[in-house]
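Long-time lurker, first post. I've been practising inverse folding by hand and with some scripts of my own, and I keep getting stuck on stretches where the structure tokens seem ambiguous. Below is the full token string for one chain I'm working on. Before anyone asks, I'm not after the true native sequence, just a reasonable design that respects the backbone. If someone could post their per-position residues I'd love to compare against what I wrote down in my notebook.
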């Protein structure tokens, strides 16, 4: 499957011209991201942003690629920019929360997950991730409540429930 995607990527890269749209760069970047080429994906997402500086998804995806390169501060900058352009974009809050968690900023993560939940009250992953952060901060009641809500919404939170709710 990766060979087919690589062939597709190679063939489509020859078609990139001066008329390439931001969406085409996003598509090319997504292919590179899937193949593990985070540097190439970052380059394509940056080209999309140069074409359309308000392309929210380009900032979010570039943040994901930067995170893959372990450029956590760069990823946070991109997620923050996506949020500035569209303040009701729950996935950008979730992704920024994940990155802050990797930096052990659990309080910052909780704030981002809380905002994602305010935007989308049925965001199971945000409840689960917020519960994990609360667990790391020693808030077992909060962790248990969030894990239980995530489970109720369809996320498998059984491991966190087992650790936090007993």
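-- Answer (accepted) --
I ran through it position by position. Result:
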């Amino acid at each position: 499957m990766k060979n087919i995607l690589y062939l597709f990527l190679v063939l489509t890269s020859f078609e990139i011209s001066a008329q390439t749209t931001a969406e085409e760069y996003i598509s090319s970047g997504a292919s590179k991201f899937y193949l593990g080429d985070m540097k190439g994906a970052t380059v394509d997402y940056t080209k999309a942003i140069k074409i359309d500086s308000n392309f929210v998804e380009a900032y979010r995806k570039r943040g994901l690629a930067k995170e893959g390169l372990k450029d956590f501060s760069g990823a946070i900058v991109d997620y923050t920019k996506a949020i500035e352009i569209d303040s009701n974009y729950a996935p950008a809050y979730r992704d920024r929360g994940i990155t802050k968690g990797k930096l052990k900023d659990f309080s910052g993560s909780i704030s981002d997950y809380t905002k994602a939940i305010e935007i989308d009250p049925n965001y199971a992953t945000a409840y689960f991730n917020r519960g994990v952060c609360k667990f790391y901060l020693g808030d077992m009641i909060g962790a248990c409540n969030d894990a239980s809500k995530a489970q109720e919404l369809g996320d498998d939170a059984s491991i966190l429930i087992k650790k936090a709710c007993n």
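A couple of notes from the structure itself: The domain at 97-166 is CATH 1.25.40.10 (Serine Threonine Protein Phosphatase 5, Tetratricopeptide repeat). The radius of gyration is 18 Å. Happy to go over any region you disagree with.
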